[in-house]
Design goal:
The protein is an alpha/beta fold. It folds into two domains: 2-152, Alpha/beta knot (3-Layer(aba) Sandwich); 169-223, Trp Operon Repressor, Chain A (Orthogonal Bundle). It contains eight helices and nine strands. The strands form three sheets. It has a five-stranded parallel β-sheet. Strands 3-4 form a two-stranded antiparallel sheet. Strands 8-9 form a two-stranded antiparallel sheet. α3 (95-101) links the parallel β5 (82-92) and β6. The longest helix is centred in the last third of the chain and has 19 residues, at 200-218. The two termini are 34 Å apart. The mean pLDDT is 97. The structure holds S-adenosylmethionine (SAM). S-adenosylmethionine binds at residues 86-89, 111-113, 115-117, 131-133, 135-140, 143.
Length: 224
């Protein structure tokens, strides 16, 4: 999978992409991520990328021309791609959406800033608007990183254990059962006996019951 990111702040991506599983995925050629400075696509001596909103109201709005030019340039160089505008008004990012996006071979992510992006980008350029939750962040860079990370986990070969993502919370509409590791006893707190029994059928039943129990308790909306 190829991911191109268009942003006014490319430096934000230094670090998160260069650690742990995302680094390994990139090194193994399972996912390539390239971050592009939107200013490179802005015209004029000052490469202006934002202007005050028509109708007043304060703040600045990202101009459409650099975003259109950036996306068109990336499509010209790397072929067709699904254009995603990160926006608090978009479709909520879920495990199911991340799994769907992992099937796409080329994603182009557009990160907004300031008061947002000229509406013509959402209306005439983006294929999809994606939100990472009902709160407003200062920019689309962290949402883009969240999207990249959640999608990467569904790419074949990225997780050491190919079954790992299918046991996680939200798969099968449930939260995952609790996990324990050594020591068996810590400050008097013990581990459920069944997990030490070696009886895999019983462990499977316990995990299913626990997954149901904690989903009912913490996220009853998932059972609806
Ligand atoms: N004025 C906009 C509104 O009320 O809908 C919010 C603009 S926000 C300050 C600036 C940019 O951050 C947005 O264009 C978007 O790219 C990004 N952003 C903020 N919150 C987000 C969220 N929850 N999910 C995805 N992107 C978000």
């Amino acid at each position: 999978m190829r991911v191109d990111v268009l942003t006014l702040f490319p430096g934000i991506f230094d670090g998160p992409l260069d650690q742990s599983i995302l680094l390994k995925a990139r090194e193994a050629g399972l996912m390539s991520v390239e971050v592009h400075d939107l200013r490179e696509f802005a015209e004029g001596k000052h490469r202006v990328t934002d202007e005050p909103p028509f109708g007043g109201g304060g703040g600045m709005v990202m101009k459409p021309e650099p975003v259109f030019a950036g996306v068109e340039s990336l499509k010209g160089r790397f072929g067709p791609g699904k254009v995603i505008l990160l926006s608090p008004q978009g479709e909520r990012l879920t495990s199911a959406l991340a799994r769907q996006l992992a099937e796409v071979s080329h994603l182009i992510l557009v990160c907004g800033r300031y008061e947002g992006v000229d509406q013509r980008v959402a209306d005439h350029l983006a294929d999809l608007e994606v939100s990472i939750g009902d709160y407003v962040l200062t920019g689309g860079e962290l949402p883009a990183l969240v999207l990249i990370d959640s999608v990467a986990r569904f790419l074949p070969g990225v997780l050491g254990d190919p079954q790992a993502s299918s046991r996680d919370s939200f798969e099968e509409g449930l939260l995952e059962a609790p996990q324990y590791t050594r020591p068996r006893e810590f400050r008097g707190y013990t581990v459920p006996e069944v997990l030490l029994s070696g009886d895999h059928a019983a462990i499977g039943r316990w995990r299913r019951e626990e997954a149901l129990r904690r989903t009912r308790l913490k996220r009853p909306d998932l059972l609806d």
